């Protein structure tokens, strides 16, 4: 086997550096034989701290990706990279310049502004607490307060999807579907538009459930992973979805992000859980 | 009041478009008087779909931010923007070109590669389920399996922080601290390095709790929001943290992202919850 090509990345931010790292990861995902080494420098808010980083950059010759907005620092790093022939991507300042051009407003040059603790931020925290409180059908009362109610048989990603949507400020409750179990009466009082039915493929579900049994140290060949039972469960769910008249998403080959985006698109909501323009 | 300057953004991706949107939001956070209107075009994977978007772009003259990686599409949009003098930021291809230069490998040109369902992805889902299962001290058995145990009095962001760290593949359990309540014996069996004590400022906590009471339709002036009681609770927590010898973070003026980054830095973990290079 040929060794993977190692490429060093410097992820520099005056805030947490999440955005820059995600950009690096998205670019990297296009390569199979490259092994990235990430050096993260969050909270780089002073010239002194930046100087230390730049010195290391000159030694290691990494690909630099930064989201510095602190006045002076972004200019400094870009200038340093130019003089020292370092590869450096400035993700925010070109876009900020265009915004200045269009609005006439000068940027505040304040690190971490995106994380400032505003109302939207506190709504998001409430939404996350809501998702935890009303996960797994714990309290059907939640259906009536929820923005979205997710239905699905076991292992159709209800919990992570609820949390992901909570991160978009949406109050999400979910209910696991089991053919023999009672459907709480509250569900029928919910606007069907708010209900999303999750489904998946038999083979995928079978595989998931076998793995879960193995993870629990149990025999993978139980009724839980039995193809016949899975088929019955999925049919039961499908009939219920038809009766409700709700939107159905197959999560079989989709990531949480992809499923969540489909749901937001379906509800005509933007990324903050607000109606689209 | 002067009306805010409206600026249109086209967020175009052949995957979900999360990364491009975050870049736009981070740039926007630097401006107070600009009102962004986001038009999102996720899953733009075909020339036909892109043509529709480009036609709209010519009309609306937005700031275009894209993360297209599908072979052909990124070239097409960049070319179109040039010919029609549209403002267009290509976030990934310049970085991908540099990776090609360093590795000699050609990109796969496959949309959504970052969301492919690998082991790491399933670990993340397990971590999220773990966080929900062991939230709020529900089952102290979780402390023994957790990568991180968060302690804190009510309203110190334990739940959202647990979920955020779960997104980094870390198994997190949390325990609310109440002076009169019993501390589960399992806590003393946990490596103190894995324990994080959350604290906050009296005024911030008082404010939070009053708001919570108001949200519940209750009188905000209860013992729960009483400054004297809050001081006692925080002192109790502080003494416990000293006894355990754990790392302490004040969450008073920090966002979840910032607190989480401090914790990851303290534990010398990278963004995947793995040891740093």
Characterization of the model:
Two copies of one chain form a homodimer. Chain A is of the alpha/beta class and 277 residues long. Chain A folds into two domains: 111 residues, 3-Layer(aba) Sandwich (Rossmann fold); 148 residues, 3-Layer(aba) Sandwich (Rossmann fold). Helix content of chain A is 43%, strand content 16%. Chain A contains ten helices and eight strands. The mean pLDDT of chain A is 89. At the A-B interface, α1, β2, α4, α5 and α7 of A face α1, β2, α4, α5 and α7 of B.
Could you outline the blueprint of secondary structure elements for this entry?
2 copies of one chain form a homodimer.
Chain A: E1 5-12, H1 18-28, E2 34-41, H2 47-60, E3 63-66, H3 73-83, E4 87-90, H4 93-103, H5 119-133, H6 141-145, E5 148-152, H7 158-166, E6 172-176, E7 195-199, H8 202-215, H9 227-244, E8 247-250, H10 256-266
Parallel strand pairs in A: 1-2, 1-3, 3-4, 5-6, 5-7, 7-8
Helix pairs in contact in A: 5-7, 7-10, 8-9
**CATH level-3 fold name of the largest domain in chain A:** Rossmann fold
Q: Identify the overall geometry of chain A.
A: elongated
Number of strands of chain A: 8
Largest sheet of chain A: 4 strands, parallel
Strand arrangement, largest sheet of chain A? 2-1-3-4
Instruction: Bin the helical content of chain A.
Output: 40-55%
- Biggest interface, CB < 8 A: A-B, 79 and 79 residues
Overall mean confidence score, pLDDT of chain A: 89
* CATH hierarchy class name of the largest domain in chain A: Alpha Beta
Low-confidence stretches of chain A: none
**Element string of chain A (H = helix, E = strand):** EHEHEHEHHHEHEEHHEH
